[in-house]
Predict the 3D structure of the following.
Amino acid sequence: MKKSLAILSLSAMMTTGAAYAATNETVQTTTIMPVTTQAASEAISVQVNGGALSEKGYLKAAATEPMLPLRAVTESLGFKLTWNQETLSVDLLKGNVFTTVKTGEDRYAINKMFTTLGTAPELVDNKLYVPASFVSKVLHGSITTEGASVSIAMKEDVKKVQTTGVITSIRPIRDYTAIQIQGIGTEGMVLNVNKDTEYQMLDGTKLSLSDLHVGLTVTAEHSMAATLSLPPQTSTSKITVLDTKREANSLGTAGVVEEVRTDDKGNMSVLIKGTGLTETTPSEVVLHIGDETAIVDKNGDKVEKSALVKGANVIGFYGPALTKSLPPIGQAWKIVVGVKQE
């Protein structure tokens, strides 16, 4: 009888141990563990641009910096937030600044660049909190901590610079549009424009984004700050078109001049082989060069027709009317010389 009881007791202990091990394994495979309380934390008051927030931050006993309520802080700074329930992450957007914050992941993205802050965002009572350094290192604001109080300041960058170049690409991206000038691929600069960007002709005539097209020479007023990507991207407040007229439905082909032709009447044409700037643009085209054809460098400055020689890197811009021959033949209204090819 005693032997039977001993076996039964051992069996119960083994069953209990197996259940305990299974419970531990379940906890270890959980990728995101929301924090349900701010226990053992000091409450931190938060001010944004001089105004106090009703929501508090907190500082854990062993932490090196306070955690701030993400929604309350960023909405006060003018950001639009979108919550993604499946990934427990938040997308933040303001003008041309876009970043994503994910619960439990110390990997912060802004304008396609990633950084770590040493502390992952925490979900506390269904609210997402980020380390205070998020404001300074990701949003580029200033932050001051005094005792149990944090002050945040972020002013719009009023310092602007101007850059001139020929438009080579216009691409809608979410809530903004990327306009590339001065080159293709990784060359040149990308002007990020949004609903607040102004457009005009040189004489002051108002335009809209839909009036822009590839081939136009423009001057952009943009922020001094730019991303470290290739090409760099910058927030743009105004674009002025320098051409006296626009060419509707303009097409473009970037490549190398394979042949320069001159007929018995002195009319000049060039054969360009390379890459169409859009999916519907030919990669090989013959373009007639007329008296009205503008020949410029990547900045839009005039260059001599003699620059159009065999082997020159160019981008040819022309109207949609092309012959059905191979290669097709069209009339160039602008040729950009000296643009690096990918």
User: Anything to note?
Assistant: The longest helix spans residues 2-28. Residues 8 and 79 are 64 Å apart (CA to CA). The first strand starts at residue 41 and ends at 48. Confidence is low (pLDDT under 50) at residues 1-33.
